[in-house]
Amino acid sequence: MRAKILLAILCGALSVEIGGMPRAAFEAQARPSGSPAMSNERFRLDSSQSKFIAHALRGGLLWFKGHEHLVAAREFSGEAEMSPDKITSGSLQLTVKTDSMVETSDAFTAQQKQIINKELREIVLEPAKYPEIVFKSTEVMGKSLGNGQYDLKIVGDLTLHGVTRRIVIPGKVTLTGNNLRAIGEFSIDRSDFKVKATSAFHGMVRVRNNVKFTFEIVGHRV
């Protein structure tokens, strides 16, 4: 009986202290300070199920006059990270292959698209010099809307045509099972990135300074 009493006392002491340190303090010291309750979930972006399109209103000549360019990115990759209980720990990295940007508007014939795409490569985007368009987030802000939906603003650095500028991308994100879907739009001034519109001498791609990007991006849990 005495042995059982001593064992009970010993077990009680261990539940309160470990090596002379209160258990709560020991557990707090074992955890990294400031660590989130839930680690970030990683999602790999899937370009085959996504859309990333530049809308450029034309101000030029001949048969392209009045038509909007819809230049889509056919190849891009990247990852998004997100913790449902801590939005500010999220991040986004996106890399677009510059030479995958092509005209997709139905307003143009196949022959016209060939001309536009040639000028996009040789004069506007210059993929031989600048093979990638890269976005890396530096801050994520927003709020949960419930049911796995989030209203976010993603702040980060966009590198385009060899120039890096800070931009803000607003968007809505939905988490469903193992999938992430993000939709939204943002605009840039192409002159900030030293992106040319072709001159009347060359011909056909003359866009205004403001270029709007729309996106619907799908990612799968890693």
Set down the secondary structure blueprint.
Blueprint lengths: L1 H15 E2 L2 E2 H8 L10 E5 L5 E7 L10 E6 L2 E7 L8 E7 L3 E3 L6 H16 L6 E15 L2 E12 L2 E14 L2 E11 L20 E12 L1
Antiparallel strand pairs: 1-2, 3-6, 3-13, 4-5, 4-13, 5-8, 6-7, 7-9, 9-10, 10-11, 11-12, 12-13
Taken in chain order, the helices and strands follow as: HEEHEEEEEEHEEEEE
- List unreliable stretches of 5+ residues: 2-36, 60-65
Structural shape: elongated
In CATH terms, what is the architecture of the largest domain? Beta Barrel
Number of helices: 3
Beta content comes to over 45%
- Rounded mean pLDDT is 81
CATH superfamily of the largest domain: Lipid/polyisoprenoid-binding, YceI-like
Major sheet: order of its strands?
A: 3-6-7-9-10-11-12-13
- Total strands: 13
How far the N terminus sits from the C terminus, by CA atoms, comes to 56 Å
What is the radius of gyration? 26 Å
Main beta sheet: strand number and arrangement?
A: 8 strands, antiparallel, barrel
Please name the CATH topology of the largest domain.
Lipocalin
Overall number of structural domains:
2
Task: Please identify the top-level CATH class of the largest domain.
Answer: Mainly Beta
Q: Classify the secondary structure makeup into a structural class.
A: alpha+beta
Helix amount, in percent? 10-25%
Give the gist of this structure.
This protein is an alpha+beta fold and 222 residues long.
Features:
2 domains; 8-stranded antiparallel β-barrel; alpha+beta; 3 helices; about 220 residues; two-stranded antiparallel ribbon; 13 strands; Lipocalin; disordered N terminus
